[in-house]
């Protein structure tokens, strides 16, 4: 089995926790430096049911283009990972908040962890 490549030293990961992705709301992380968000996503801690949860994201109140993804309920299980790669409006400054927003469309309480990978300096 081949080993995966190492994470570049200039890419850091920030994360935050949401108590229930099935309830409409937001969770926030803080950027520790200036840079560019190159990947973002979520991992669920339980299965969701009935409908998908649509996730969108913002930096300091500005929507991130390409920063949306769906947490699917079909075949859902704890540990499911979903990701997105932003295409524009993804520059962050030190102490900017990164907001992850759920539409709350799914059912079943599902704690979720969100993350953003930031390439330091842009």
Number of helices: 0
Q: Tell me the radius of gyration.
A: 14 Å
Distance between the termini: 33 Å
Strand element count: 10
Binned strand content: over 45%
- The structure class reads mainly beta
Considering DSSP H and I runs of 4 or more, what fraction of the residues is helical? under 10%
Secondary-structure element pattern, one letter each:
EEEEEEEEEE
Main beta-sheet strand count, sense and barrel state: 5 strands, antiparallel
Low-confidence stretches: none
What general form does the structure show? globular
Mean pLDDT: 95
Written description of the protein model:
This protein has strands at residues 11-18, 25-30, 35-44, 53-59, 62-63, 69-71, 81-84, 91-92, 97-102, 112-120. The chain has 122 residues and is mostly beta strands. The protein is globular and about 40 Å long. Strands 1, 3, 7, 8 and 10 form a 5-stranded antiparallel sheet that branches. Strands 2, 4, 5, 6 and 9 form a 5-stranded antiparallel sheet that branches. The mean pLDDT is 95. The chain contains no helices and 10 strands.
In a nutshell, what does this entry contain?
With 122 residues, this protein is mainly β.
Q: What key phrases describe this protein's structure?
A:
globular, mainly beta, five-stranded antiparallel sheet, 122 residues
């Amino acid at each position: 089995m081949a080993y995966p490549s190492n994470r570049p030293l200039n890419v850091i990961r920030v994360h935050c926790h949401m108590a229930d992705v099935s309830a409409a709301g937001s969770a926030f992380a803080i950027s520790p430096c200036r840079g560019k968000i190159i990947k973002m996503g979520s991992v669920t801690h339980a299965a969701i049911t009935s409908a998908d949860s649509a996730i969108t994201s913002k930096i300091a109140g500005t929507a991130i283009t390409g920063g949306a993804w769906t947490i699917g309920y079909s075949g859902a299980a704890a540990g499911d990972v979903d990701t997105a790669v932003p295409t524009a409006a993804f520059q962050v400054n030190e102490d900017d908040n990164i907001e992850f927003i759920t539409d709350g469309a799914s059912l079943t309480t599902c704690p979720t962890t969100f993350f953003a990978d930031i390439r330091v300096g842009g």
